[in-house]
Amino acid sequence: MTNGNDGLRFALAQIDTCVGDLDGNGEKVLEFTRRAVSDDATVIVFPEMTLTGYPIEDLAFRATFRNAAWDKANSLALRLKAEGLGQAFVIVGTVGTDDERRLPRNRMVVLHDGVVWAGYDKHFLPNYGVFDEFRIFTSGERSLVLDIDGFRIGVAICEDIWQDGGPVAELGRQDIDVLLTINGSPYEAGKGHVRHELGARRASELHAPLIYLNQVGGQDDLVFDGGSFVIGQDGKMLERSPQFVEDLSFWNLRHDADSQGMSTVVPELGTDEEMYRACVLGLGDYMRKNHFEGVCVGLSGGIDSALVATMAADACGGEHVWGISMPSRYSSQGSRDDARLLADNLGANYRTETIERVFDTFQEQLHLESVAEENIQARIRGVIVMSYSNSKGLLALAPGNKSELACGYSTIYGDAVGGYAPIKDLLKTKVWDLARWRNGYAEAHDEPVPIPVSSIEKAPSAELRPGQRDSDSLPEYALLDQVLEAYIELAHGRADLLADGFDERTVDTVMRLVDRAEWKRRQYPLGPKVTSLAFGRDRRLPVTNAFRE
Amino acid sequence: MTNGNDGLRFALAQIDTCVGDLDGNGEKVLEFTRRAVSDDATVIVFPEMTLTGYPIEDLAFRATFRNAAWDKANSLALRLKAEGLGQAFVIVGTVGTDDERRLPRNRMVVLHDGVVWAGYDKHFLPNYGVFDEFRIFTSGERSLVLDIDGFRIGVAICEDIWQDGGPVAELGRQDIDVLLTINGSPYEAGKGHVRHELGARRASELHAPLIYLNQVGGQDDLVFDGGSFVIGQDGKMLERSPQFVEDLSFWNLRHDADSQGMSTVVPELGTDEEMYRACVLGLGDYMRKNHFEGVCVGLSGGIDSALVATMAADACGGEHVWGISMPSRYSSQGSRDDARLLADNLGANYRTETIERVFDTFQEQLHLESVAEENIQARIRGVIVMSYSNSKGLLALAPGNKSELACGYSTIYGDAVGGYAPIKDLLKTKVWDLARWRNGYAEAHDEPVPIPVSSIEKAPSAELRPGQRDSDSLPEYALLDQVLEAYIELAHGRADLLADGFDERTVDTVMRLVDRAEWKRRQYPLGPKVTSLAFGRDRRLPVTNAFRE
């Protein structure tokens, strides 16, 4: 290990872990540590809850799991030493147990010289948005400063730097040389800048550079984007790792604050590219971690299924994508042509399963009309998609976007069928943006353009009755998406929305649609809880709710 | 109002509120207060979060909603006075706003003489099981003692008495005459005794009787059972209200601790009756509060759908129940006869929709085999059930029980279809218990026995292939349910289960089934979160989870 003039060499091991996979995550720590040490690093930093994966939710309450994680940390320390890596300081996250109350902790441990050499427990436990940590963990009470090769390294875990006070404030009185943080910070559009600003502020307060090591990878509906960085106390970016891929970067800490090491600073991505890559990584990791090798998706010729199939081809290769065209009497020839063209562009498997005969057979028996007649077409398609899923072991993809899901403009057990919905969090206008971005990317790289232009340009239609248009039932998407953003994301009430300048009719339409769609978004049935633990009670808004603004 | 010799007269208004229905809940407060005052009560006690309903989840974050609730409390106080009820002390729960931080509070207010006369904010915010209050509310800091007609009344809200310390401990130093608590305590089998013991302990500690006023009614998947009570400092039950119905009872507080008033003490229900009534109330309230007048359910002739249809008939009347028999080539004649007999017994609407022609049409096109062939039968039935739901505006009921849902022994988008699952939280052995109890109840009351005996006694089968039995795929239910109880409810790990005396093969089978069923229980598709607020991310266990004990 070479320090001396170069100061202390850190390796930023931005890895993709899997929840519950103690063995696999441990192997990955070993592999990255080998590479880091061979590049002369002394301190190797891994993300929050490295060994367990993150977030572990109620797994934390299983004593068996906590014991297995503890065993893994110890055996890993021994194995590192046995491989001649004992002199490195390997910083990993894991689950711990509160000594007094036997409750779970969100813990950082330092593996060194064959033992768990030091430990630190997360103090601030986020309890908002996607986070439920206060429910699961108890808080650590102590700050920690590591003394390595004459450098004083303060440590913190994720939320500890987002809140004022606590252990980071305490570190401000400890004259540290660097603040090392390990994180599991999920991707959100624009969050990179927020992290950078926060990092710069803490570095300035503590008069020390800050290392921000973030997890990368998809875990259920969260995507961690990586983008780890080191920022100086003057706000200068000293290192930035790429987003959406595993990475091993290096940075040297020096005693002289004015001449800190500079390392590779990867340029930032544009918003559309960032979102697109987030969706692809989320889908790809969900497949890999749940052992799916391929996907099936209904191809309508419309923009939503076209974008979903393209993302899938980018995630697992076109040859693992099964596109199923399921035309009816209401499907235009243009739609069928677009579906086939898309599949050809992607190199995907393509099948046509007309729904006409089954639809006629159902109707001879049931004689359905209006919405019931529309829904049964979508449900026949749902049955066909699931039959491909069952027969071939494919992950069924639901092509719904956030605008239609928010408004309940989809058929439960119909087009909403699937195990994963790659664009469920993209408003419709953003779906168009990403489709255009993806085609533009292909053009710029001299690759075949995947998405047929007519899928992007034609007026959206569910094609469940003659001449149907989305705009028969919904405001135009350009307007709808603005109202949804204000009503859902900003929690504006009716009076706020009118003050925002939206007209009364649109506001009332959108509010009514969104309020009534709550039960549709919950596609598992509700039911009473009569014993101590029921399955799947988990939502944020009551389904039964009579409040009208 | 007559106090004097009778002391202070309390009315226990155990009402059924609806989340978000500020007007409806306010009207109910008015109506019960009129009745209480006409029976000479001075203090009228309503449940936790009376005006808003409970639990309100993220509605708490909408300032519009909090403002409307505040207006409702004030206008209600004025209206009470205008009606000549201003001298009563009306104690209701509502949502408040923390003055400093503008965050939501779980608040009790006293309406008196036309104004909001006093207020108290809940201190301990439960953050486990079905409760997420710490996420939503901030804690109150002060205890409150009301002085009414010379009596000192300490107050608390629900969790405040479940935790040691806090405002209730403070009340112990205040020489109070009674502890008045308002609650939203969901039903769990056996919880009544736990509440009584807790009440007796607090009454003893505070040297004062305790009033426990609980909400009644269903709210999504929670059922509140009422069962309000007053318990003396010597542990003697002084009043107990019935469970599962709205109720107005009275109790007089006297200065002489040794001669506290006695009132009606309703006898406790047996466990099976309690569970049955919980399920019926949950379903009935879900229908009423979401404006469904009838239900549809597939009738297989088996015990699960038979119990569900019987509960539905008890909840809304047999004439509002649509039972659909959907036989295939694999359905036995006995099953068809049992389905028809059940519908006749219940006075339900009965339809037969054979699935044969649609199944054949699908198969001519798709040529499915094995599990895919089994699943498509269940999914055709799901489409038919939903077509009745759509055509007639009926709530579709999913008949799954907890044993099969836990093991994934059901078809997603097939028999799992529905908006409400009345027995989703009952293990299979408990399904049989409740069916026998319901038939026995009918016999004891000289009513027609609803459930055919052969539905109870025959071996369970999904009838999706010739001669199929549940026991081909699952351990016998008597054994399976014991393992499920230990693995899920008690969180026993593999070693614990073996130590419990279960054999290794059974343990490994059940653990594998339960671990793999997680994604099935989440019937909405997952998808990546790319903006600040995604829909429906809310679960307790990760779907992606590689941990194996």
From TrEMBL, chains A, B:
Gene Ontology biological process terms from the UniProt entry: NAD+ biosynthetic process
This protein's pathway: Cofactor biosynthesis; NAD(+) biosynthesis; NAD(+) from deamido-NAD(+) (L-Gln route): step 1/1
Keywords tagged on the record: ATP-binding, Ligase, NAD, Nucleotide-binding
CN hydrolase domain ranges (all copies): 8-259
SUPFAM superfamilies reported for this sequence: Adenine nucleotide alpha hydrolases-like, Carbon-nitrogen hydrolase
Residues reported in the UniProt entry to bind ATP: G298, L299, S300, G301, G302, I303, D304, S305
PROSITE patterns: CN_HYDROLASE (PS50263)
Tagged with keyword NAD: yes
EC number: 6.3.5.1
Pfam families: CN_hydrolase (PF00795), NAD_synthase (PF02540)
Chain sites annotated for binding L-glutamine: Y128, S185, K191
The reaction(s) this protein catalyses: deamido-NAD(+) + L-glutamine + ATP + H2O = L-glutamate + AMP + diphosphate + NAD(+) + H(+)
Positions that bind deamido-NAD(+): N375, E404, K520
InterPro entries in alphabetical order: C-N_Hydrolase, C-N_Hydrolase_sf, Gln-dep_NAD_synthase, NAD/GMP_synthase, NAD_synthase, Rossmann-like_a/b/a_fold
Active site, UniProt feature: E48 (proton acceptor), K122 (for glutaminase activity), C158 (nucleophile)
Molecular function in Gene Ontology: ATP binding; glutaminase activity; NAD+ synthase (glutamine-hydrolyzing) activity; NAD+ synthase activity
GO CC list: cytoplasm
PANTHER family: GLUTAMINE-DEPENDENT NAD(+) SYNTHETASE (PTHR23090:SF9), NH 3 /GLUTAMINE-DEPENDENT NAD + SYNTHETASE (PTHR23090)
Assigned protein family: Belongs to the NAD synthetase family.
Biological function: Catalyzes the ATP-dependent amidation of deamido-NAD to form NAD. Uses L-glutamine as a nitrogen source.
Protein name per the record: Glutamine-dependent NAD(+) synthetase
Species in which this protein is naturally found: Bifidobacterium fermentum
Gene: nadE
